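Sample entry follows:

_____
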Amino acid sequence: MKVKMFKDDVIEGLKKAANIIPVKTGAAFLRTIWLKAEDGGLHIYATDSNLEFSGSYPAQVIEPGLVGVQGRAFYELLNKLPSDNLTLKIDPKTKNLLIEHGRRKYKLPTNDASWFQILTAFPDESPVLWSGETLKIIIDQIAFCISEEDTMEAAACMNLKPIAEEQAIDVCGLNGHQFSMVRFQSEAMLGLLPSEGILIQRKYLTELNKWLPLEEVDCNISDKRFFFRTSDGRETFSLPLSYYQFPDYRNFIGRLADPDATTVDLDKIDLVDALNRILIFNSENNRCSYFDFEDSQLVLTAQGHEVGAATEYIDVDKKGEFQKIAFPTRNFIEILNHFGSSKIRLTFTGNEGPCGVTGDKDLDYTVIIMPMKIIEETYYSEEEA
């Protein structure tokens, strides 16, 4: 193999390939980036046995061929080189990969071509277009509510579920104490998804989000994989589907519409700022903020034997009889930071029931958080004069 190219034409592809391969652990062939020179270009392939990436980039092919190199070292070397032309070629005697960049010369060991595994091809039958930017936003709104523990099965996955009667798709994630859901309309995606929906593990969403461009991508689904391809056909990324049973979330999401539920409308920034100050007064043993509603104001408190006490007041518009509840402060701040709305609504279903968070500008986006059990403790009290 011998091929010439401009470094900047291939470096982003190498970065995406290096992102998915193991750094140190795993079999050597899984830490390999494969370079194939043919058809007037350089083709890059990488897999960690679950995720698969392939890309094609402009290059002058002098001698076609296939070579595998230690992926991370190869990418880091090229990434640190100045933008210029470079040549890759195989030493016929040692089988090493020789890299020439101006007066610079490098040599990397290669892996046996028999290790190369043909990646799963993108299914060309009836692909659909989906905005990469929209998908990135959805991943951001959902992933933080997905468990990071693979042993949690469906709770470690993002669920895409078609809702035929609504002509919509629900995208959901949960981790036991939080749940988030985005509902969107897409006739094309509705036709692509199986009726039972699909599950994608959180750990794969991270790498998908890194790869996704902002423009539209082609999507397709097979029995085992979800495929994405850039609109120019240059790059393909695919990930495996999971086959756990996602819980029926309609039961608890439906409780937010209960006529006895209490709704509270308030300014998001006011609440975030107050909670960030309250956070200073949380401790390892008491991680909560206490929400106490008095007429048209919310009283936020926190207290601890070692850290002191704090009280904050926020004006609210309350409808209902609900009085007092507690939430983990840091978790509630994280939830609010995923809303772009300036006004939010909190929907309370009971002292130990789910609380829904929605925003006036974040249409069809709902997050649910479970409250903490309130245990009354007093560390500070005013003494009579």
The chain has three domains: 2-115, 128-245, 251-369. Residues 378-385 have pLDDT under 50 and may be disordered.
